[in-house]
Specification:
The protein has 278 residues and is an alpha+beta fold. Helix content is 18%, strand content 32%. The longest helix is centred in the N-terminal third of the chain and has 12 residues.
């Protein structure tokens, strides 16, 4: 598979004696167990437990690199700096031409393996800089097929909990480490099993409509389309409502297009048969 350049991705470097402790106390993932060569998903949350930023984190020698949407670099640097206080941490945007991804091939020197795709049963590497094709559509289709959602494409920031984006299932959330911003809400959702919105792979009978189109069953909203590639797309849906609709034989529509819904195989999730009212 050819390498693909993601121009809309950028890096932030954290260095200094306190970098590991500082970052691990802020984000959802457990970075104490982060091994060299692994890029682990994580998020920085609001105090209410919503995703303020989502990103990947990996080690670079004694430093940490955060890969985030390029448009969020400045805001994330500001937010991290607010928490810095007297910690011995330097937070610096990296100069790069984007991130290159390649899958089902031998890793290039300096590449790291994306743990989100590893959880889904495939090998995908990420490498700083531009080293390949500019057409990102194959990567988008790959993300969709494996149920891997990203903020800005599949959900707006400050609108989703980590469970909604399956971060609780792919290593992006730790339920064993100490406190982090928003931890109490996320932990309560986990232990009470109250997460009802989840990433779903949507397949249309014809090409799907545009991102943002509402999915419905008997005119009842289930959620909205995120990334779309031809007949397939991602959506974060109320899976209790979707399960009830499918169990009763109701048609599920994305706009006017009839669709089928599937939870990612690797998630181990299934559709409930009855919806819970809010």
């Amino acid at each position: 598979m050819p390498a693909i350049v993601l121009r809309d991705r950028a890096l932030i470097r954290l260095s200094g004696r306190d970098a590991a402790h500082f970052l691990n106390n802020l984000v959802t993932a457990d970075l104490a167990g982060l091994v060299p060569g692994e890029a682990r998903p994580a998020a920085l949350l609001t105090p209410q437990g919503k995703i303020l930023f989502d990103f990947l984190v990996w080690r670079n020698g004694e430093d940490f690199l955060i890969e985030v949407t390029a448009g969020e670099v400045e805001a994330l640097v500001r937010r991290l700096t607010l928490y810095k206080l007297r910690a011995d941490v330097t937070i610096t945007p990296e100069q790069s031409d984007g991130i290159t991804v390649v899958w089902n091939e031998k890793a290039a020197e300096g590449a790291v393996q994306d743990a989100r795709f590893a959880a889904a049963g495939m090998t995908l590497y990420r490498l700083a800089g531009a080293h390949g094709d500019e057409d990102t559509s194959p990567y988008t289709a790959l993300r969709i097929a494996h149920g891997i959602a990203e903020a800005g494409r599949d959900y707006p920031l400050q609108d989703a909990f980590p469970h909604d984006a399956l971060l609780d299932l792919n290593g992006g959330v730790s339920f064993r480490k100490g406190c982090y911003v928003g931890q109490e809400v996320v932990s309560r959702m986990h232990h009470r099993k109250t997460a009802r919105r989840r990433v779903v792979v949507v397949t249309g009978e014809t090409d799907l409509p545009e991102t943002g189109t509402v999915l419905t069953a008997k005119n009842r909203p289930l959620g909205a389309l995120g990334s779309v590639a031809g007949k397939q797309g991602l959506a974060i849906l109320r899976i209790d409502r979707a399960g009830e609709a499918m169990a009763s034989g109701q048609a599920v529509l994305a706009g006017d297009v009839a669709v089928t819904l599937a939870l990612p195989d690797w998630s181990g999730l299934s559709f409930p048969l009855a919806a819970e009212e809010e």
